[in-house]
Amino acid sequence: MMKQSLSICLFIMLFVPAAALSGPLDQGSGYIGLQYGYLSHDQDKISGDSNPTALVAKLGYFVFNQIAVEARYGFGLSDDSARWLESDGTVTRGDLELDQLFGAYLAGYLPLGEIGAAYGLIGISDVKTSFSFSGSPRSDSDSDSGFSFGFGANLYIPYFKNIHEDGHWSIGIEYMRYLSESGYKLTSYGLGVAVHF
Questions:
Q1: For the residues of 36-64, what is the DSSP string, one character each?
Q2: How many C-beta neighbours within 10 Å does residue 56 have?
């Protein structure tokens, strides 16, 4: 009887406080967010960089403490002027836009106390872009997929709720290389918000 009582007390001392103070990076917690992305697009068929913008939604779930799986979907907000390199060496002007972006990633988080967390992530992205030629109904689209990596930081916003409660918010900044293939690179500089549950 005494051993059972001690076991129950030990369980309460160890696990109940941990559950009461479970944080946003703990196993079983999750997050959903939106991110504005300023893109840098570099492709062999296009002369120079172009900088369209995008809106990216993300959904994450912590499978272990500080380790999350994350899915993303994004689409273009605005296009940017670009120059298309024709096969004969001539250049045609037009506009480049992100049509859609899908991705699946594994993210590792480093807690920064009550302030927030830094993270890095790796995964795979599938990207589709389109180029509209100026003064012509002609257009061209390109799809590619490949390895992705990035890093960023989240800052918790205690104004709404304590970070140990469901429904608290964070703001974040991020560098993300969605594609880094030969002849095709897509980089995003992101600013976003997320709610944690």
A1: EEEEEEEETTEES-B--EEEEEEEEEEEE
A2: 23
pTM: 0.80
| Predicted local confidence at residue 184, as pLDDT | 81
Helix (H) or strand (E) run with residue 30 in it: strand 30-43
31-65 pLDDT tens trace? 999 999 999 888 766 766 788 999 999 999 999 99
Phi, psi of 7 (to 5 degrees): -65, -40
Q: Is residue 88 pLDDT above 80, yes or no?
A: no
CATH of the domain at 9: 2.40.160.20
Round to the nearest angstrom and report the end-to-end CA distance of the chain: 39
Q: What are the DSSP calls for 107-130, one per residue?
A: EEEEE-TTSEEEEEEEEEEEEEEE
Ramachandran region of residue 24, left (φ > 0), alpha (ψ -120 to 50) or beta? alpha
| 177/184 Cα distance (integer angstroms) | 11
Q: Residue 19, SS3? A: helix
Q: What is the C-alpha separation between 9 and 4, in angstroms, rounded? A: 9
Give the domain extent around 86: 2-196
For residue 87, what are its two tokens?
A: 């096969």
Mean pLDDT to the nearest integer, 148-156: 96
